Amino acid sequence: MTDELRLHGMSGTPPKALLYSDPVTYDRSDSKTKVWEQNRDERPNAPFHVRAFHWGSLTSGSKVTAFWILLVPFLFANVAGWMADGRRWTQAWIRLAGLCVTGLFIAQLGVVFLDLAPTWLINAGMVPGHALALGAAVLGVVFVGITMFLSTRSSIQSISALDQIKLLLSPSRSGTLPPRMELNEAEEETQRNDPALGAKLTHPAMWERHAILHRLRRLHFGAALALIAVSLEWGVEGLGGLTQALALIVLAVSAIAVLFSSTNWVFFIIRWAGIAGVLVWLAAMAHVLRALTDTTTAVDKSHTIVFFVALGLGAAVFMAFVSQMVASGINTDSNPFLPTGAFAFAGLLGGAMGVALGLLAEFAIFRFGGDANPFQVGADPFVIANAQVMVNGGSWVAAAMLVLVLAFVAAAGMAALWPPFGLPTAGRTNALLRKITQRAPWVFGGAAAVALALGGLAIVNTCLSGGCDPSKLAVFDDDRLLPIAMTVIAMIGAAALSIAATRISAGLGVGTAIVTTGLIWLVNDPRFDAWTFELPIIRIPINPTEVVDLSILTMILGLTFLIFKSIVGGFGSQDSRRQVGMLWDTGSFWPRWFHPLAPPAYGPHAVQALREQLGEDEPDLLTAHSQGSVVATVALADGGVSASLIKGYVTYGSPMGILYKQMFPAAGVAELAHVVECSLSTVNSEEQRIGHWINLWRDTDPLGGEEVPISEMAQRALLVDSDPTEGNGHSQYELTEAFFNARPDAIAGVATNANCEEATDG
Predict the structure, then answer these.
(1) 660-685 pLDDT, tens per residue?
(2) Which class for 149: exposed (0-12), middle (13-18), buried (19 or more C-beta within 10 A)?
(3) Nearest-CA neighbor of 50 among 730, 623, 506, 547?
(4) What is the pLDDT of residues 34-90, one digit of tens each?
(5) N- to C-terminal Cα distance for the chain?
(6) Element (H or E) spanning 716, and its range?
(7) Which of 53, 150, 105 is nearest to 571 (CA)?
(8) Which of 77, 156, 276, 484 is least buried, going by the fewest C-beta atoms within 10 A?
(9) Crossing angle for the helix pair 440-461 and 299-328, nearest 10 degrees?
(10) What is the distance between the alpha carbons of residues 395 and 524, in angstroms, rounded to a whole number?
(11) Is residue 672 within 8 Å of 635, Cβ to Cβ?
(12) By three-state DSSP, how is residue 528 classified?
C-alpha cells in the first residue's frame, strides 16, 4: 500500500472533510500541528494509505486569534513589505510607514483616553492632573498588552512574561535576540543583519526565528510610549519643557532607527529604545500629576496629533512609491501600486476603526455623563457631523474609506469584463471570480491610485490652504468633490457589476442594475435630504442619503458591528474563527519583518513542522491543496533534503501562480517552484528528464485557476465543459478522476521539459 501525506488549504479544513472519512489521530510532539489518519475500516481496499497534516490550529486553534481582527491594519502594513521590490530604501520607507500605522493607532486611542475620558472624569469631580495621568496610564497599559500579548502570545509560540520584558527593555546585546536560542558568535552576528533585503521564499532565514522582529517591536514600543507622552503634555496648556522635548527626541530617534534599521550604528539606539519610551511616558505622567492643572485637554490638539501622524504615514508611503517607481517602474516584476494599496487599506481601515471608537466613546460620555447630546443642533433634524470626532477629520476618513471600497469594487467589476471571454456551461460565477483574481494586481493598484488621489486632495484642503488643520477635512454640503467622486466611481462599479451579473443570468444582471441605480439615485436626489432615522440601541440619528451619514453607517458603525461580531463569535467557536481564516492564512504566512505587531506568522512553524513530519513518515506521496501547496513547496525547498524523502508530489488549487506570483512579484515564486521541481526530477536510463510534480487546476477555480510556474508538461487542467464530473470551483479536487490518476503518475514520473541543468550544476 502506498503512503500519502495530505495538506489542507485555507481556513483550516477539518480532517474529516479533508480525508472524506471519520479519521483518527495519533500524538505528535508538536501540539500545534496534528496528523490524522484515514479510517482503514471504511476503506479496506484503498490503494493509498492517507494521512492528513493539519496546520489549521496555528491560525484558528486559540481563542486569542479571535482578537486578531483588531490587528488587520498592522497585517496590511507587514504584507506591504512583501509586495515591494526588495530594495533597501523601498523597504526602509515601508518600515517607517509601518511605524506611522502604529502611531495612528496610538494617537486615535489618545483621543479617547487623553481627551474624552479625562474630560468626563474632570466634569465628574476628579482633579485634572489625576484624570490625565490615569488616561495616559490606561493607554500605555493597553498598548503594552497588545505588544506583549495579542501580537506575540498565541497558539504558535509561547513566550514567558520574563522573556517578553527582556525583549522590550533589556539593553544587553542578548536582549534583542530571539529568546531561548543558543547562538555562537558567528550566528549572533548573522542575527544582527537584516534578512529582509532581497529575501525570497527560498531564503532559509525566512523559516527560522530572527532578531529583526524583536528589534522592530522594541522601536515601535518606545516610539508609541513617547507619542503618548507628547500627546499628554501637548494637550495641556501650560505644560511642556524638558519632558516634552525628551519625548519628541525619543520619537524622532526611533523613527530614524526604523528608517536605517539595516545599518549597524542603530543597534545602540535599538537597545535603549524601550527603556527610553517607558521613562518619558512615566515622566510625562509625573509632570501632569505634579502640576495638578485646572486646564482640561484640548480637543483640537488631540486631533491635530492624529492628523500629523497621518501626514507622516502618507509621506512615508509616497516615498516608498517613488523609490520603487524610480528603481523599477511599473511592470509585472515590480508594481509600486501593490504596497501602496496595502497601506491604503491599512491606513483607512485603521482610521475607520479609530473614528468608530472615538465616535462611540464621545456619544457614550455625552449621553451618560449628563452633558448635551453632541448629535443635536437645536431642533430636528439631527446632524451627526456635529460630533467633535467627525468635525476633526472623522467625516473625511469615513467618506474616503467608502470611496476606496467603491473604487475596489469598480476595478474588480471592470477586471471581470476585460478582455471579453467565454464562460463555461458550469461554474460561471467561479469563472468570473477567476478573471478578477487573474488581474488582482491591477484591481489592487486601482484602489491604490484612488488612495493617492484622496491623500493629495486632503493635503490641498488642509495644509495648502493656510495651516494644517484637521477640522478642514470635515465634509460639508457645499464640498461636493468627494460626493461627486463617489458617485462617478459608484456608477462605473454599478455598470461593471451589472454587465458581469448578466454573464451569469439576464435576471441577475437586470436586478443588479435596478438596485445599484436606485441606491445611487437615492443618495444624490436632494428630495431625500430630510430623511432621518435613529439606529437602535445607540440611538444615533442617520440620514442614509447624505454622504457622511452613509459613510458612517457602512464604513464606521457597520464595520464596528462586524468586528465585534467576529470577536464574540470567534472567541466562543473555532468554526467562527475559521470564517476569517483565509485572511490569516494568506497574510500571516509572511514573517513580521516589516511590522512587528501583525498577527503572529504561522509560516515558519508550519514549514518546519512539515519537514519534521516528512522525516518521520517518509511518505511515498505528498499532496497539497490551496495554501497548503505553498507551505509544502517551501518545505521541500530545503536543499533537496525533504524532496528526497518522497517519490511524488501533487498540488491542486494552488494559489502560487494566480495570486502569489502576481501579488508578491519580488518574493521569488518562480525560483521556488524551479528549485523544488528540479529537486524532485530524475533522469532515466534513456537520459530523459522525468518529473514527479503534477499540478491540477480548473479554469473555474478563482484561487487556483492558473498554472504554477513549473513545466507545462506537469500541468493538468480540469476542464468542466469537457467532463462535468470534474466539478468546478476551489474544492473537492480529491473526488475527481484526474486526482486519482495524478497520484500514481507523480510517483512513476512524467516527461518534463524543465531546464534543470543549471540547478543540477549548482
Answers:
(1) 988 998 899 999 999 999 999 888 77
(2) middle
(3) 623
(4) 888 887 666 666 788 899 998 887 877 677 778 888 899 999 999 999 999 888 999
(5) 36
(6) strand 715-718
(7) 150
(8) 484
(9) 130
(10) 18
(11) no
(12) helix
- State how beta strands 715-718 and 682-683 pair: unpaired
Sign of the alpha-carbon dihedral angle for 563, 566, 572, 578: negative
The C-alpha cell at 479 is 464640498
In this predicted model, what pLDDT tens digit does every residue of 555-611 receive, in sequence order?
888 888 888 888 888 777 777 777 776 777 888 899 999 999 998 888 888 999 999
Q: How many CA atoms lie within 13 A of 136 on its CB side?
A: 32
Q: What is the rounded distance in angstroms from the CA atom of residue 57 to the CA atom of residue 65?
A: 10
Cell of 560: 464596528
Distance CA 499, CA 114 (A): 50
Alpha-carbon gap, residue 552 to 399, rounded angstroms: 8
Sign of the C-alpha dihedral computed for residues 403, 405, 408 and 413 taken in this order: negative
- The whole-number pLDDT of residue 155 equals 47
Q: Would you state the pLDDT for residue 759?
A: 45
Pairing of strands 689-691, 750-751: antiparallel
Nearest residue to 423 (alpha-carbon basis) of 499, 509, 508, 503? 503
DSSP 8-state code for residue 701? -
Whole-angstrom Cα distance, residue 122 to residue 132?
9
Q: Which residue did the predictor score with more confidence, 239 or 277?
A: 277
**Higher-confidence position of 396 and 63:** 396
**Residue 672 near residue 201 (C-beta atoms within 8 A):** yes
Which has more pLDDT, 753 or 73? 73
> And the C-alpha cell for 689?
528528464
Residue 525, pLDDT > 80, answer no
